[in-house]
Amino acid sequence: MFCVNSLRIVCSSRAAVHPRWLTTNRLCVSKAVTCMSTSCHNKDTWDSKTNFRGQERELFNYTKQVSTTRKCSTSQVKLNCWNCKQLLERTPTFFCMSCNVVQPPEESTSFFKLMDCDHTFTVDTQKLQKRYLQLQRSLHPDNFSQKSAKEQEYSESQSALVNKAYNTLLKPLSRGLYMLELEGMRIEEGTDPGADSDFLMELMEINEALDEAQTAEAAERIGQDTKGKLADLTEQIDTTLRKGELEAAKALLVQMKYYANIEEKVKEKLSEFM
User: Fold this and answer.
1) Residue 102 is part of which domain span?
2) CATH code of the domain in which 249 resides
3) InterPro entries given for it (predicted)?
4) Is 215 helix (H, G, I), strand (E, B) or coil?
């Protein structure tokens, strides 16, 4: 047990010089002690001058690495105002609190955070619309026609980003696709090769019935049926996303995409009877 006792002596001396060392690195020391203790028991001999120095060096390199990783993972990059250089406390920041100058958009910010919405599939659309109008009133480029070229540029970029975020989160389909995208998943364009043949046959029949519809009432009935299917899919997608079942959510979103296309075709058909 020479190696463990020697390590405890080293740790005690380190703690005496740096009182916080042992506390902040308690877990690292414990892991190293266990590892080194096992190593000592497995060897018949122990060269205290060579092996212990190597083990001590590994211990402090390990604690330094863990400490650095912890700092990198928990700290957030702070931004400063491009105009007055003051620290920007909130994220996202549209205006500097010190000089009230518009800031460049933070492209990496989630649309949910940008629009002050909960990261869920069932977004409060009224709250979303209220937030959108509030931001556009302050960020619209018309408000910066007399400002500097940089402020005009940033207002246009901010306004465009808010528009994109709003339109993405407003509809269930685009919202769900965006949530999958945040998880690194995408739905490719075109017919899904994994789609059920019965489902595809049903879609063909609906499209044929819509093409053959001779009255607005007939097209409207197809539209109502489609809305009902979309409502059911919305509930199912919400359930799967809450459970973290991304593949199931992806399959349901593929179905929603087809029905959303039919819904648009119904609108076009109804316009023909006006």
Assistant:
1) 79-170
2) 1.20.1280.20
3) DnaJ_domain (IPR001623), HscB (IPR004640), HscB_C_sf (IPR036386), HscB_oligo_C (IPR009073), J_dom_sf (IPR036869)
4) coil
